[in-house]
Design goal:
274 residues, mainly beta, Immunoglobulin-like, 5-stranded mixed sheet, 52% strand
């Protein structure tokens, strides 16, 4: 007695048997292959979710851009035997992130931003719109491209990076603090005559951590000395005994250090008029 042998197509997953992931958009997903010989004797019928654009494809692989549960029927055209399989396709995700080589400093501050964004299947094709918070912006089309901004004015700046890849979007934020650079400006004349105008030898400073000043008369006698951690140094034109110093030229030695580590070592003359 002859036995009727059936030759059913053997369906197996071509990769990990778990879910397939769409990388934020179109993905050529080869979800099924067969292990019973050449594919010329097989035909395929895919049944995709209702929202998918493709409902039937006679191919061992399927290009899918819609998540959902997909079924496939594989028919052996010689024996007429059929096998059915299924696969779940899920949406991937995009994770935004970046770092700055400086988050604080002194103007003008150049900051380089490194993009650390990635999607479910890698870092390719990630577009980033950078808003630097200083009125400038730039767009990069790869997570491998760095961006930079120059902050010329002191202040606190919010940097926002808008990342997108296909249907995925995410945002990352960082704060940049910019301070004014140190400064030391020394006048060359003052008039301590009590009229309320330019009565004090006053240093114009910014962001100094320490400063010292010595002032000598024409004969080399020290008439004034002061140290400060705030930069507030002012000579009212009186000598070390509290008496009015005589009109004339005086020699100063001023040393200072800024918060930005700038060093100052100034020597010069200032004229006192009454």
């Amino acid at each position: 007695m002859l036995r009727d042998e059936k030759n059913y197509p053997v369906i197996k997953n071509s990769s990990d048997p778990g879910d397939f992931t769409l990388d934020c958009g179109l993905s050529n997903i080869k979800v099924y292959t067969t292990n019973n010989g050449a594919a010329t004797n097989l035909s395929y019928l895919w049944l995709a979710p209702l929202q998918a654009s493709t409902s039937s494809v006679n191919s061992a692989s399927l290009t899918a851009n819609v998540p959902g549960f997909y079924r496939v029927m594989v028919t052996d055209n010689v024996s007429g035997c059929k096998s059915v399989g299924a696969v779940n396709i899920v949406t991937g995700h995009l994770t935004a992130g970046f770092s700055a080589d400086h988050t604080s400093g002194f103007a003008p501050l150049n900051v380089v931003f490194t993009n650390h964004s990635n999607s479910s299947l890698g870092t390719e094709s990630i577009t980033t719109v950078w808003s630097f918070g200083n009125g400038t912006d730039v767009t990069t089309n790869s997570a491998g491209i760095t961006a930079n901004a120059v902050y010329s004015q002191p202040g606190t700046y919010t940097v926002t990076a808008y990342m997108n890849k296909g249907v995925c979007q995410d945002t990352a934020v960082s704060i940049i603090h910019v301070d004014i650079p140190s400064k030391l400006e020394i006048p060359n004349v003052f008039t301590p005559n009590g009229d309320g105008v330019n009565d004090v030898f006053f240093l114009h400073v910014a962001n100094l951590t320490e400063i010292s000043a010595m002032i000598f008369d024409r004969w080399g006698h020290k008439v004034y000395e002061l140290s400060s951690s705030t930069g507030n140094i002012a000579w009212d034109g009186k000598n070390e005994f509290g008496n009015d110093a005589a009109a004339g030229a005086y020699f100063y030695v001023i040393k200072a250090t800024g918060k930005d580590r700038q060093s100052y070592d100034a020597k010069g003359n200032v004229s006192l008029y009454r």
